[in-house]
Amino acid sequence: MNTPALQVTSLAIAYTDTEGEHLDVVSGLSFSVVPGQLCCIAGRSGSGKTSVARVLVGLTAPAGGTVTWGGVDLSTLTEVERSDQRRKITGYVDQEATLIPGLTVLDNILLPAIPDGRDAARRAKNKAAEDLRRLGLERRRKWSPARLSGGERQRVALARALTANTPAIVVDEPTASLDRRWADTVIDLLLEHADAGGIVVAASHDPTLARASHTVITLDDASE
Ligand SMILES: Nc1ncnc2c1ncn2[C@@H]1O[C@H](COP(=O)(O)OP(=O)(O)O)[C@@H](O)[C@H]1O
Ligand SMILES: [Mg+2]
Known about the structure:
By secondary structure, the protein is an alpha/beta fold. Helix content is 35%, strand content 24%. The chain has helices at residues 49-56, 79-88, 105-110, 118-134, 150-164, 180-195, 207-212; strands spanning 6-16, 22-33, 38-42, 64-69, 72-73, 90-93, 168-172, 199-203, 215-218. Residues 15, 17, 23, 25, 43, 45-51 line the site of adenosine-5'-diphosphate (ADP).
């Protein structure tokens, strides 16, 4: 796996709310993640974990600082290049585990491979079967996302990222809706992805996930 290293330098994230109030969520955050590592972005609710995850995959622009993957600064890419990078290099699982409502579980998982042609689709089918099995979802293959529980949806969204097999995966609260057994399975899968030479960045308040990670970046609570 040709995984680009992640370098975050002097990152600042800020919002202006509807009343015009300025909120500095993150400032001066620097860290790096190399291939083979599972990195946990930890911190209390509201500390900015989701905000950092979104900036790492280029969904939102930071107020300051840089995010580079393999030396390429996300801010130098066009919108289209950033979205291409999410599909091919830095997969993303959002905190809501969003799925496409009109597609079955399996088709949601196979969707990212479609632009890459028939061989990629065949590989994805084999990998999807394995990921669905590991995540206990074989019997949900043909279900519509609306029928899934929150925990099932979360596991499907992770299966989609694993099947896409991007070198890096940024995943937001991957264990939040899961009981301990499935949370531990998810942590094992994230570690396997790192062990295979990938990078996993997990925004999470799960102490078990933090303990299993190679590096932990703890965000300060801006409200304190
Ligand atoms: N789009 C936004 N506009 C304004 N404030 C936001 C926005 N997104 C997040 N925030 C605020 O930024 C802080 C960090 O949020 P978030 O990144 O979701 O933290 P966490 O994931 O650690 O719970 C919170 O105070 C939240 O209300
Ligand atoms: Mg969050």
